[in-house]
Amino acid sequence: MEAPNFFEQVYQIVRQIPEGRVTSYGAIARALGAGGSSRMVGWAMRAAHTAYPPIPAHRVVNRIGVLSGKMAFGSPTLMQQLLENEGLTIVDDRIVDFADVFWEPATDIIL
Predict the structure, then answer these.
(1) Distance between CA atoms of 43 and 100, rounded to whole angstroms?
(2) What is the separation of C-alpha 98 from the centre of its chain, rounded to a whole number of angstroms?
(3) Phi and psi at residue 46, in whole multiples of 5°?
(4) What does the alpha-carbon distance between residue 74 and residue 108 come to, in Å, rounded to a whole number?
(5) If you average pLDDT over residues 34-60, what whole number do you get?
């Protein structure tokens, strides 16, 4: 059997992010053993709208909690709305109490 490609591996991790929690592009890359590939994780998130089952891409932010991928959602406010619907607070495109809602995939994933 063929191993899943990088994007599919990213999607496997992102599907495991609990509701109301977020992680970063870099944390996903490190969990996959590709620590220098956070930009590639971002590319995967940008392409996630075509994946099935759906990917909760709104739960992936940059390393300091900024909604850096918000323009990929077709609306500049949709990513924030989705996170707020899960109970997170966003101020100036940044997650409040980021450390408290951060999910570490390296310790919590099931591949």
Answers:
(1) 26
(2) 13
(3) -65, -30
(4) 30
(5) 92
Tens-digit pLDDT profile for residues 88-102: 999 999 999 999 999
**Domains present along the chain, CATH in parentheses:** 6-102 (1.10.10.10)
pLDDT > 60? residue 2: no
* CB contact set of 99 (below 8 Å; sequence gap of 6+): none
* Pairing between β-strand 90-91 and β-strand 94-95 as defined by DSSP bridges: antiparallel
What is the DSSP secondary-structure string of 26-86? Answer: HHHHHHTT-TT-HHHHHHHHHTGGG-SS---GGGEE-TTSB-TTGGGGSSTTHHHHHHHHT
Q: What is the pLDDT of residue 23?
A: 97
